[in-house]
Structures are given as structure tokens and as C-alpha cells.
Amino acid sequence: MPTISQFFGIVIQMFWREYAPPHFHALYGEHEALIDIRTLEVIKGSLPRRAQALVLEWAAQHRVELMEDWNLCQSKQLPRKIAPLD
């Protein structure tokens, strides 16, 4: 699973051949959450409150790029890296 961004110990990844809705995986320690790109809602799993807030802030800033990466993955292409949260 390609890592598309990393910040503050959080790893953002996206799989090929994933199912709808468009989403990404956020990993922090032993925690993992799947985040819907369109709504920025957690659709599976969980993160600690602070990590989740950082992920959602980052995703809101990069929603267009996340959808572009989702489309690349659906076409079995390598997603592009996305800048980390500053």
C-alpha cells in the first residue's frame, strides 16, 4: 500500500483496487482509520482525538489531491505524494 504522506507520526496510505466510497487509510501507532475523502468522516476504525483532528485538517487542505490519487489508484497507477501538514 503506497504511503502518500507522513506527518507527526501519522502515516497516510491508499490502496489499489479499493472499494467505494473514495477513502484513505490513516495510521497512528496501533490505530487505523479509514476516512471518506468526500465527507471527511471516519468510515471504519478510529484514531486518538488529536491525531484524528490533524488528519482531518490535512485532508481538508488536500481534498482535490486525495481525489486525484484515488482516481490514479482505481486506474492501477501509483498515487502521487501529498505535502505533509505543517
Structural summary, described in words:
The chain has a five-stranded antiparallel β-sheet with strand order 1-2-3-4-5. The protein is globular, with a radius of gyration of 11 Å. The longest helix has 13 residues, at 49-61. It contains two helices and five strands. The chain has 86 residues and is α+β, with helices and mostly antiparallel strands. The chain has helices at residues 49-61, 63-74; strands at residues 3-7, 10-13, 23-28, 31-36, 42-46. The model has no long low-confidence stretch (mean pLDDT 95). The protein has one domain.
Task: Summarize this structure as a short list of keywords or feature phrases.
single chain, 86 residues, alpha+beta, five-stranded antiparallel sheet, 5 strands, 30% strand
What's a quick, concise take on this entry?
By secondary structure, the chain is α+β, with helices and mostly antiparallel strands. Helix content is 29%, strand content 30%.
